[in-house]
Specification:
This is Alpha/beta hydrolase family protein. It comes from Stieleria maiorica. By secondary structure, this protein is an alpha/beta fold. It has two domains: 1-31; 36-291, Rossmann fold (3-Layer(aba) Sandwich), CATH 3.40.50. The chain is 40% helix and 19% strand. The chain has nine helices and twelve strands. The chain has helices spanning 2-30, 81-89, 125-148, 165-177, 209-212, 215-218, 233-251, 270-276, 280-291; strands at residues 39-44, 50-56, 66-70, 93-98, 107-109, 115-117, 157-162, 191-197, 202-203, 206-207, 222-227, 259-264. Strand 11, helix 7 (233-251) and strand 12 (259-264) form a beta-alpha-beta unit. Helix 3 packs across helix 4 (165-177). 39% of the residues are buried.
């Protein structure tokens, strides 16, 4: 009887030693790895440029919402680090790029092999269209590679534009939705929401309304952010009303869904609005993460 008690006690003590370590090992397996360190990336275009980008990867794998940030004309990606970090911390995978003529993408090689620098004052409508066709496609190509490695879900893409970058963002969204699937192969229709910060109506003669008025683009959840008294307020009001009318046409006259206007009571615009208002970044993060669900039925992950 005494031996039996000793044996039972020994077994119980051994289990007490083993079980916590087993449980802690299981807990270690469940521990989520931190997101990868952000860093610079190169984005080659199909017309021979190499653009500069900065990528904030996610630790959510196929459940990560990818976000592309398109800066303003005569701007660059650099001021949007806080926004990128906040989105990354919410589980998104974020790519900010300098499109041609801006930031780290000012130079190009001419046919003779000489390095030249873009002259912003001489850039015209054809350059804007090239940014939409080549530069933003190059950004998507990078995200597509990440998608196929299981590091994000390209089918849940969000595009954020700032000032004139809103024209580019809307134009590229229209382009993205023009690529219909070929059989089971998905080619586009990946953008699932837009964020327009201090939107401008025109860029080198290219109007934003011509893209936002397209039903496939108008139907997307869209958030606009503007500073009261800013130089962009008039354009934003006009764009909002046009998009509101387009959404009503789509819904048969019902109140438009998925359209938000955030008016900040400060005359701030562009990167200053993003960084100096305490409310803007949290509200953008909230919009992005709430408007683009990911599941087996909503925006499921698809290999390209």
């Amino acid at each position: 009887m005494c031996r039996l008690s000793v044996r039972v006690a020994t077994i119980a003590f051994t289990l007490a030693l083993v079980m916590p370590s087993t449980l802690s090992a299981q807990g270690a397996k469940k521990k989520v790895a931190p997101p990868p360190q952000p860093g610079p990336v190169k984005l080659p275009t199909k017309d021979g440029l190499e653009l500069a980008g900065y990528y904030f990867g996610s630790n959510k794998g196929k459940e990560a919402i990818p976000v592309m940030i398109v800066h303003e004309w005569k701007g660059q990606k650099a001021p949007y680090g806080k926004l990128c970090t906040a989105l990354r911390d919410a589980g998104c995978a974020v790519l900010a790029l300098d499109y041609r003529g801006h930031g780290g993408s000012r130079e190009y090689t001419d046919p003779s092999g000489t390095t030249q620098e873009f002259d912003l004052e001489r850039m015209r409508k054809q350059h804007v269209l090239a940014i939409v066709k080549y530069d933003l496609d190059a950004a998507k190509a990078f995200l597509e590679k990440e998608n196929n490695e299981g590091k994000l879900n390209l089918n849940a893409l969000v595009v954020i534009g700032v000032r004139e970058g809103c024209v580019l963002a809307a134009g590229w969204t229209q382009r993205d939705w023009s690529f219909v699937p070929v059989g089971t192969r998905k080619q586009g229709q990946d953008v699932k929401a837009l964020v327009l910060v201090s939107p401008k109506r025109l860029l080198k003669g290219v109007p934003i309304e011509s893209s936002l008025g397209v039903p496939t683009v108008a139907a997307l959840p869209t958030m606009m952010v503007v500073g009261e008294g800013s130089e962009e307020q008039s354009d934003t009001s006009r764009i909002y009303k046009r998009l509101e009318a387009a959404k009503k046409r789509i819904s048969g006259g019902k109140d438009p869904e998925g359209l938000e206007l955030m008016e900040v009571k400060q005359p701030l615009g562009g990167p200053f609005l993003v960084n100096e208002s305490a409310k803007v970044i949290p509200e953008i993060v909230k919009f992005v993460t709430s408007q683009v669900p990911i599941s087996d039925t909503d925006n499921p992950w698809i290999e390209r």
